[in-house]
User: Which sequence fits this backbone?
């Protein structure tokens, strides 16, 4: 774990160094943010039956930084790198570090506060878990558009294609893929922020995901429902000796609300609640609730 | 012209609805006799941009002034106004490269920056050369007023009542300085956030 961390930190420094050389322009503006989260997920296994459901709390620490470049009057480019780590209270096999990069091109369509904007972005991240089943890469391409509606309401939407690849695909059942964490998802997101004043904000979010989801059973399923609809299976020892992770096709809806308040000009404290509702093939349904305390600091 | 006396002055003191000293109020003194309007010399008003804010937040200027908009930040700004008193745009620039802008109509000009949506500033284009902006302590001094009668008014970006409702008529002579105080009811201040606070969810 420690050597992986060192490797990732070295990589991130190399990244920052390279991007500095690449730009070398006075109009590039650097940014650096720290994020810390305390989160609880009441259904880590994404399980349907209560005997398979386990919850855990985790801490997340992340640093992201990069450059913001105003290319002309209306177009801007953002190059960002992020190093993030998650540590679980009980299920240490899920502890992970990730290192990613994001490139985003944004256009504002005109002059003034209420003109719409659109953006194109691509990102890639390396995922490195304590247990190697979930190791892999995460790629995303996204189109976004938004508009300030009133002085206090700001809204935007995103359409994204997300692909995750798994390094390891040990076959459990002969003839059935073991690549449980090879996932593709189509994502639609809608977000709105309301400003109560210049310091306190309410963010409302909706997300619809269609694609691959992973559900883990801790005990052998008596109904064998997964055998009919699963597209990949792997042993998932993080959750027990008999635990198996199944990849199925499903739709997830996520409803989220966050209240955040600026503690200073540099720091923001927030509380966020998300409800995930997933309907998978074979009538496999599961639910997650994730309350999260967030703290962000911008340099 | 030579008979005019320049000794008069008005000390102003502005408070908000709670009695706190109020910055960024503009007090104007308009002589009833237009002969008492003397064009100011060395009139070079400046609206600076520092740390992605307009500085000062409120700048009173005499009508037909050329106002310069230097950019003291090391990034570029894109300054604009949609106000009827002056519509203009200074496309992306740094340093002092933007040409000064002529303000030839009286009224309030609201300033914005197209890169930094939270940047907000005001230019008060005055028909009288006698004005002052209140400092942090709510105070200000209008000097060198020719003797005569004046109408004195106050404006502030958040004020609820009209500027006209604050009007007072006073006579200025060289003997004493006039002391004028106002208490203004204000709308709550609202400013767009500087950071992308609450931008999206991290899934
Ligand atoms: Cu700006």
Assistant:
């Amino acid at each position: 774990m420690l050597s992986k961390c060192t490797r990732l930190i070295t990589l991130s420094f190399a990244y920052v160094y390279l991007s500095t050389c690449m730009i070398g322009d006075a109009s590039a503006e650097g940014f650096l943010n720290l994020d810390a989260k305390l989160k609880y997920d009441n259904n880590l296994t994404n399980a349907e039956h209560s005997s398979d459901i386990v919850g855990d709390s985790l801490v997340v620490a992340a640093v992201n930084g990069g450059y913001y470049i105003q290319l002309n009057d209306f177009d801007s480019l953002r190059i960002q790198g992020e190093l993030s780590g998650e540590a679980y209270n009980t299920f240490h096999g899920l502890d992970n570090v990730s290192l990613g990069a994001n490139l985003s091109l944004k256009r504002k369509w005109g002059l003034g506060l209420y003109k719409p904007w659109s953006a194109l972005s691509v990102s890639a991240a390396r995922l490195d878990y304590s247990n190697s089943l979930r190791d892999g890469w995460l790629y995303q391409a996204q189109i976004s558009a938004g508009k300030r509606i009133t002085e206090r309401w700001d809204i935007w939407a995103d359409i994204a294609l997300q692909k995750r690849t798994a390094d390891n695909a040990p076959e459990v059942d002969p003839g059935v893929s073991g690549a449980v964490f090879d996932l593709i998802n189509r994502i639609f997101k809608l977000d709105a922020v309301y400003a109560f004043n210049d310091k306190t904000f309410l963010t409302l979010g909706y997300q619809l995901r269609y694609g691959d989801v992973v559900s883990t059973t801790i005990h052998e399923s008596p109904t064998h429902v997964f055998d009919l609809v699963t597209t990949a299976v792997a042993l998932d020892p993080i959750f027990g000796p008999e635990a198996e992770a199944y990849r199925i096709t499903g739709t997830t809806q996520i409803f989220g609300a966050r209240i955040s308040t600026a503690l200073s000009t540099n720091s923001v404290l927030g509380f966020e609640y998300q409800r995930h509702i997933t309907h998978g093939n074979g009538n496999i349904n599961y639910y997650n609730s994730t309350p999260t305390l967030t703290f962000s600091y911008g340099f | 012209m030579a008979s005019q006396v320049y000794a008069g002055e008005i000390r102003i003191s502005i408070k908000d609805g709670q009695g706190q000293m109020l910055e960024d109020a503009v007090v104007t003194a308009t002589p009833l006799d237009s002969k008492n309007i003397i064009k100011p010399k060395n009139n070079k008003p400046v609206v600076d941009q520092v740390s992605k804010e307009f500085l000062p937040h409120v700048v009173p200027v005499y009508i037909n002034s050329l106002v310069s908009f230097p950019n003291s930040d090391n990034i570029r700004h894109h300054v604009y106004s949609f106000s009827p008193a002056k519509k203009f745009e200074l496309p992306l620039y740094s340093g002092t490269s933007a040409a000064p802008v002529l303000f030839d109509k009286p009224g309030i000009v609201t300033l914005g920056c197209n890169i930094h949506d939270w940047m907000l500033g005001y230019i008060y284009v005055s028909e009288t050369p006698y004005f002052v902006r209140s400092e942090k302590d709510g105070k200000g001094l209008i000097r060198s007023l020719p003797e005569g009668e004046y109408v004195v008014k106050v404006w502030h970006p958040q004020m609820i009542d009209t500027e006209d409702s604050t009007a007072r008529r006073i006579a200025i002579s060289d003997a004493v300085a006039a002391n004028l105080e106002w208490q203004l009811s204000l709308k709550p201040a609202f400013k767009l956030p500087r950071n992308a606070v609450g931008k999206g969810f991290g899934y």
User: Anything to note?
Assistant: Chain A is about 10% helix and 60% strand.
